[in-house]
Amino acid sequence: MLKLPNTPISIFTVMSKMANDYQAINLSQGFPNFPIDVRMTEIVARLAKTDIHQYAPMAGYPPLLEKIAQITSDHYHRKVNPSTEILITAGATEAIFATIQAFVQPQDEVIILDPSYDCYEMPILLSNAKPIRISLKEDYSSDFEAISQHLSTKTRMLILNNPHNPSGKIWTENDFIQLEKIIENYPDLLILSDEVYEFITFENKHISINTREKLKDRSLIVSSFGKTLHLTGWKIGYLIAPENLVKEVKKVHQYLVFSVNSLAQASINEYLNVFHIEEVSKLYHQKRDFFQNLLKETAFELLPCEGTYFQTASFQNISDENDIDFTKRLVTEFGVATIPLSVFYGNQTDLKRIRFCFAKDDEMLMKAAERLLIIK
């Protein structure tokens, strides 16, 4: 008996393969194509010659845990214990998987807000639990009435993604007030807050659950050095939660990966002595504006992008095709790979929208825009 018989190959794998097969410009998968900071490569080269190659402690490299605690204090004014309230993980995906495995029991329900990233549902199904997928509104704001209607004593967890992939939407103060109100009668409900793009926001500042007094003691917050430091291939993330929650996730983590790459952790720890996290939003703010300016003469309708390095666009004035067929034609006929948004919905909602990744160098973005300009 197969556990995941209906699980297809990820759309990110499909589109990246198509981009390679057709020599298309790949704006689909979310990773930067520009070099990492030379200061980081120098740190890695130097540390690689030291005695740093054996297992790191299960919970993480202690100096890096201290750095994360300081970052959390500096940005969110939350004091966390580095030895008991932080866990270094093999990317944010492992943090999400381990958290769901640690707390979700068979027959539990877990709320996912669609469109949603594809790594949320699988660990729920592997727990023999039930994913409850609730669509966001068309402007990607949360439908708190629908969420409230689906809450019950069976609801074990609510998964949030803020800043939101794929839409680039960020939560407001009012959003959190509404959330706090509707879950106050469900004390056993946990929040899994995916905040991997927390340092990539633009006009408005990211509001983290780290700052919410009514929520943080029942929340597990996931962050990503891969996203923040442009090191997606290193797969280094971390989890922040109260000690009683982190303790349970560690039980899964120790048998899933045990510990995370020691050289990578030590290198990130040292790099944070010279790198200022505020630089990240400035970089991507410039790239967002540059890319939006390039696309303003195209037939695409650009939706607001408040955070992340993704730009969502509507093609409803271009074609009546479904979004999967349209994105495939973009690759084969125009040489640009993107992601259709219907794949982020449990019911494959098709709003005639696609997602571009603008975490690319200016030359690649300009070449892609030239090809997109001819689409009518």
From TrEMBL:
<dbReference type="InterPro" id="IPR015422">
    <property type="entry name" value="PyrdxlP-dep_Trfase_small"/>
</dbReference>
<feature type="domain" description="Aminotransferase class I/classII large">
    <location>
        <begin position="24"/>
        <end position="372"/>
    </location>
</feature>
<dbReference type="InterPro" id="IPR015424">
    <property type="entry name" value="PyrdxlP-dep_Trfase"/>
</dbReference>
<dbReference type="InterPro" id="IPR015421">
    <property type="entry name" value="PyrdxlP-dep_Trfase_major"/>
</dbReference>
<keyword id="KW-0808">Transferase</keyword>
<dbReference type="InterPro" id="IPR004839">
    <property type="entry name" value="Aminotransferase_I/II_large"/>
</dbReference>
<dbReference type="GO" id="GO:0008483">
    <property type="term" value="F:transaminase activity"/>
</dbReference>
<keyword id="KW-0032">Aminotransferase</keyword>
<dbReference type="Pfam" id="PF00155">
    <property type="entry name" value="Aminotran_1_2"/>
</dbReference>
<protein>
    <submittedName>
        <fullName>Methionine aminotransferase</fullName>
    </submittedName>
</protein>
<keyword id="KW-0663">Pyridoxal phosphate</keyword>
<dbReference type="InterPro" id="IPR051326">
    <property type="entry name" value="Kynurenine-oxoglutarate_AT"/>
</dbReference>
